[in-house]
Queue: 4 jobs
Job 1
Amino acid sequence: MIYDCHLHTEFSGDSDTPVRRQIERAIRLGMMEMCITDHHDYDTSFCDTNFNLDIPSYLTVLQSLRNEYKERIRINIGVELGLQNHLKRYLHNLEKEYGSCFDFIIGSSHFVMGMDPYDSDYWETYGEEDGLEQFFKVSLSRVRNLYDTFDSFGHLDYIVRYAPHQNSCYTYQRYEQWIEPLLMELIRHGKGLECNTGGFKYGLGQPNPCSRILKRYRELGGEIITIGSDAHSPEFLGNAFEECRRILLECGFRHYAVYHERVPEFHLL
């Protein structure tokens, strides 16, 4: 069973799932490892949800659980950082202080100009095509400026989950001018790209990013693929991982990566 390296628990503002329930679910699925990656999106007071993570408390609990479950499953300690350019100093200081405490850091682009694409106000402001364009533009800028604060870039085209017509009006080619240089930045700096199966949960029929982006990353020389379900509740942990395996093999990948102490270890798909 592929190991799940993107999932959320009660420490994330948008989940109330006890950590133990996620761990027990992974064990039942036969996983030998997992990585818990709760949200830390600093300076998002414009959101109704509080995405600030109490990092010291989080680390204390997960380290205790890691010891408790060490004979049953390896628990890797991760975090999903929300990337925003004006937080460059904050994120660098955070990485300096806590980076060595984590096995894995996902860098994700969630918000655009103080707006959340999850909300209809975003699409009413920008419209569908421009709303997607703005997201990819700002994601490229964030990867260029903040690549040294994370290990793998999360769910690159996540925004299509919430677009008015989801991915029916979206293609890689239409936004290639921003997506391709983003992929090249990841490769240049030795950063991973996440294959996030949450897209299946949202009815896209594809992971995030879509298979065309995954294939292009490989064609450009990218090798570091991390895999996560983005599960906020146990029933979605490991969701669609067999379909994910098939897609990645078709895109030319033979391995996926699991990070230990911020260093990727490769496993056969």
Note: The two ends are 9 Å apart (CA to CA).
Job 2
Amino acid sequence: MKSHFWYNNSQRNGIFFLALLIIALQLIYFFVDFSTQETSNLNTPEILKFQKEIDSLKQLKLATKKPKIYPFNPSFLTDFKGYQLGLSTEEIDRLLSHRSSGNYINSTKEFQQITKISDSLLAIISPYFKFPDWITNKNHDETVTPSTLLNTESQKKEPVILNSKKDLNSATEKDLQSVNGIGEKLSARIIKYRNRLGGFLLDEQLYEVYYLDAEIATKILEQFIVIEKPIIKRINVNTATFKEVLSIVYIDYNLTKKIFEYRDEVAEIQSLEELKKIEGFPLEKFDRITLYLDAK
């Protein structure tokens, strides 16, 4: 480093002036108060109007986040659904304990007596209670007994019409090959689809066989029809597992998922007609699905 005395006079004056400037700025920084005494007025009409708009947007966003409540049977209220509705853990446990003993909820008053929920919460959720028709309808003209139900079911059975046609459900591959246009592959495909269905319930189900021409299917029905209908135990949509519903020929994975999502929302599906509310539900398959699915 050069000695200070090596610089000429003008260079030494510049260094001295720079040092004085630095010292002056430091003194100003430490001893001069730069804070202002002015305060912002947050109560102006413009700011209040803007804040009101922000609050309304927040309320709207919170409202859209709340889960939509569908009508449901309180007897089938799950712990998750109860939590969404605002019930405490103790209140949900009381309800589940009541249901585990095989008892049901038949009125709003009974629901409160069992769960011991507050009047305010009951007033909010009770409008969504949906009880079965046999509870809500108090004007039954006759008492339904197992014997009357048996007689009613027997009256619904259609008489078997004797004719020369053979039973489609008992036909073998060789029997089907007697129809012109049916070979080994088509006959095997028909039997395979019949097994998937558990047996044909309707003649029209024959037209659903993969790669079977409608004209040939009509020829088959000229010789074979459904005479002995198989006994199909319909699956309860409210108690069925995901795999059981998926096993139905007319229901694929995506539709099964939508059905279970809807079931979780409403807690109980009281009528299969409710399935039509599901977005993307295949209405053209509804009549077929009801042959294998039930809501009771």
Note: Strands lie at 166-167, 224-225, 235-236, 293-294.
Job 3
Amino acid sequence: MERKDIAGPRPLRTFAALAYPNYRLWFVGQMTSLFGTWMQTTAQGYLVYELTHSEAYLGYVGFASGVATWAFTLYGGAVADRMPRRNLLVVTQTFAMLLAFVLSLLTFLRIVAPWHIVVLAFFLGVVNAFDAPARQSFVLEMVDRPVLTNAIALNSMMFNTATAIGPMVGGLTYWLFGPAWCFAINGLSFLAVIAALLAMRLAPWTPPARRGSTFGEIREGFRAVVAERRILAIICLMASISLFGMSFATLVPAWAVQILHGDSRINGFLQSARGIGALGSALWIASIAHRRRKGRTITLASFLFPVMLFLFSLTRVLPLSLLAILGVGAANIMVNNLANALVQTLTPDAVRGRVMSIYMLAFFGFMPVGALLAGSIATVIGVPTTIVIGASGTLLCALAVALLVPSVRRLD
């Protein structure tokens, strides 16, 4: 893989990873797929709420996916270190495509039931448990290490470009044509990323030397995390954000209906506003990826995120809700991007897949638990108060990391 120089004018630095042909293929294919993913995510949440009128059931869907994450992510990380990651990604993307088509068919036939969505969410969680560690550790097969932070930021930028536009399109598509078309479009969009993966020209894959059992290799990944206190602190920070802070995302459909008295379009607008904030933040991080003081930035962002959640919980009209959730998205992506980049920078190559599986377990594994708790609590005390409780938990954990592991702030 030819090394590229990231020096130069800011526009060139912002998109430095796109100088790599394999990353360009990934960027285009993944961007297309993510539009479909966000259309399905938006439509699925609103469909569940439309079928059940239950905040708790929104949590059940998220929890079903989380059970699979807890069960298989660590094994997925070991697999990602044992086989070509491109091959693994092709398999996971193919299965995700098939699940989207199944949901689309059930909805077209008008036989879809809430339990169908829960079961399919579980199987998609299994797919993601293998996909996420491979996806995160695959970045260094497409770009050189000096461009890693930039590539991660661009990954986030394309994710949040889709987040900014996909939910709005999904909400309008749901309103005009029904949810089945959102799911069908998502299924078709996976063809783009599968084609991009197959078109890449990668260095030959060298099978790793077998070191023992799968359990032993997973344990080695945990040892690597515990040995580097800064990695452990960052992973704990992400776990707290997923458990307490990200639960608000589960409640957005209920917020659109109960607080703003809207419909699927308002739900889509809220999700898109969150994505617009995240997109702007991702672009900013991409432009400063060559700079130092990333530790200080992630610390400040970890406090900004719960503050924006507090502000969102106070809004009662659409313009203010859109503005506040935009800030939530911006702060959240600052933490996510920098946490990912710092963990990968601190991790030895030999255990990258396993360490990233632990990172993704903290990120994705606690999120469904938070969703289940938030959905259940919201049915008793209401959506705004539930968001305040989540923001409070996130703020306390950010304070604990800042005080107990100050070396995180000094990371470059």
Note: The domain at 17-202+212-410 is CATH 1.20.1250.20 (Growth Hormone; Chain: A;).
Job 4
Amino acid sequence: MSNTNVRTMKGYAKRLNDITFNDYFTRLMMIARSVFKWENLPNGINEKWIEKFLFFEGSCVFYKDKTKGFMVAKCTQNGINAYDEPAKITPVGVNYIGKELQNGDECVLIDNNDLRAPTYSTLELYAYRLAELTRTIDTNVNQQKTPYIVLCNEKQKLTMKKILEQVNDNEIAVYGDKTLDIDSIKVLKTDAPVVFPSLQIQKHAIWNEAMTFLGVNNANQDKKERLVTDEVSANDEQIEASAEIFLKSREEACTRINDLFKLNISVQRRKDVKTAIDELKEGEEDES
């Protein structure tokens, strides 16, 4: 194989690594941003922007602009009040910087969780692990197609490459040149072990762990035996606890917003996450 082909294959492998990671991260992000349903939001405020800001920033600010009405935006936080919370908030956006607001009196900070930690950093780790397992599975599957090292002279190299290409293309029959000298060819078995079934199980376990982190119900389908009642209850408790971490902060923000601005905003966990993901996709397509 020429140096050019080697560089091309390495570049393509890296691109597959990047594509696989981005695909898993996008899937996890869409689920994360669709877990909660906001109701009775003022006109002009879409829940997808709230969840986007919380996902990437860890917090956002709800306030009322004198000319634009109610708004939600990313923000900078300054000072500390008696409760160790930001005392002053400045809304920021694309080509926009609002005036500095007094937290609790002129605006309300919506937090992703008690630590104001964004969701994306954790999901990046899960996406990385899922991508690594997937690409390892791809490699192991490919090794089963060509589990040999072929030793031949330079004259027969091109012929052997064509034969291996036919194998790689899943041809039902492999054709060789009539001048092919079989006796001069040596084949060494690499004996690549078949490990992708266990890797697939591990990948499902990582995915389920990510769903538990997001508070999304997931079923362990990789165990051959049925889950006993205690196992099901323990898994449900973990899911509920994880969901509560995110829900509690959002509910507290709703209470503060309603008290300050006399609104009736509420938030709850969305039962049909799949429908929410489809709606999010449609909304992003409309914007493009």
Note: The chain has a mean pLDDT of 83.
